[in-house]
Amino acid sequence: MKLCKFGGSSLASAEQIRKVCDIIMSDPKRKYIVVSAPGKRYDDDNKITDLLIALANAIHSGYSGSDEIEEICSRYEDIARQLGISDIYGDVIRQDLEFRIHENRANRLALTESLKAAGEDNCAKLLTLYLNSLEVEATYIHPGEAGLELEADARIVQATDESFLRLSKLKELSGLLIIPGFFGYAKGSKQILTFSRGGSDITGSIFAAALTVNVYENFSDVDGVYSVSPKLVRNPHPIRELTYSEMRELAYGGFSVVHEEALEPILRLGIPLNIRNTNNPSYPGTMIVEERFDYDSIVTGITGTKGFCALHFSKYLLNRETGFIAKVLSILADLDIPFEHMPSSLDSVSIIMKDKVFPNDKERIVRQRLYEELSIKNVKVERGYAIVTIVGDAMAQTVGVAARAVSALSRSGINIEFVVQASSEISMLFGVKEAYCNYAVTELYKTFYSYSGV
Ligand code: ASP
Fold this sequence. Notes:
The chain contains 14 helices and 19 strands. By secondary structure, it is an alpha/beta fold. The strands form 4 sheets. Strands 3-6-2-1-9-13-14-12 form an 8-stranded mixed sheet, with helices on both faces. A 5-stranded antiparallel sheet has the order 16-15-17-19-18. Strands 5-4-7-8 form a 4-stranded mixed sheet. Helix 2 runs antiparallel to helix 3 and helix 13 (about 400-410) packs across helix 14. It starts with a strand and ends in a 5-residue tail after the last helix. Bound molecules: aspartic acid (ASP). The site of aspartic acid has 14 residues, from helix 5 and helix 8.
């Protein structure tokens, strides 16, 4: 069996929803369907989720939110009318929103969460109605009622272990199951809790794992994953297959094909993820798998991300002091500053962080504490770094990849500020000044893909 998740652009209009239904019905293995909320129909359009968040904010600020309510209702009403389901579907949505507002009026967070979830929830109900109108057996499933229980720690929201067993019971149901993405119930309650933005991908992955499907198909509006951003290179090399770990590295470097947290549930069971395009359904897309056996290039993908800074410090005979780095890191931890990489030499260390987590006020405290508690005087902070990464499972078995990358950058006159390579050898990171970021990416792409024009 397959689980298909459709993103917002695939559900933005009646025309897109018809395409979705054609895709679902063209393969009897497509049994479990997870949907996002209707997204943008064109560049300046509003996503339903953004309108719902605006509605929640309006209510919190003491307004009625009637403009947002009207816009949301008319979007659903247009879709329902064009699908031939109903001419007054806007009223159903209005009642639903009013109910959510009324029920949660006393609790700010609960109100926001319930409204945010309304986008996917109503979209799943609408799709179910449409499929039923075509005489297709389809059932709407409420994720919370079906057993999706979520717990939130400081940074992420994830499904409890018990959720998977409960959701697996859905296998017993016949026909198509239509599941709204993005939300579940908070652990031990019936209160709605949503994932972070783009979180329907995570719902898809959780249900794919619980229902032990053979493939998790994730449909959006791109043909798949490319070796480099199409914004930088015309007709970039499409990636046919890549591993979860390659995808993870590429996602970290800014390839936002699926939500960063969406790989974890399927990864445990080795369920392949197939990235596909609703607007080009015959294209096979990109397959993300546990292990690969054939490679059509040494480097699978190249990314560049801006917005990093480095805290450099040195101390003579630093290598002889035990626990020294632990103390430095505990100062960062006290201030809730996560770090990304830590290249070092005998007497010096550079701690690479995202610029936004290390503002000037925290920098001042860190400098002072390093001086007072560890007698470190030579502290230097440099901002405006980008990290350019080459990713590829095949790099570990290939001689000379680093040499090729470094000489490509040096030929182009790009100074490498730092280099990071972990023992897995699946990726190699080069720190460069932000101004060189895109240039470095295209020069590396030329080198590894024998590409001449950008
Ligand atoms: N609708 C939500 C968002 O816009 C979740 C999703 O589409 O995955 O972020």
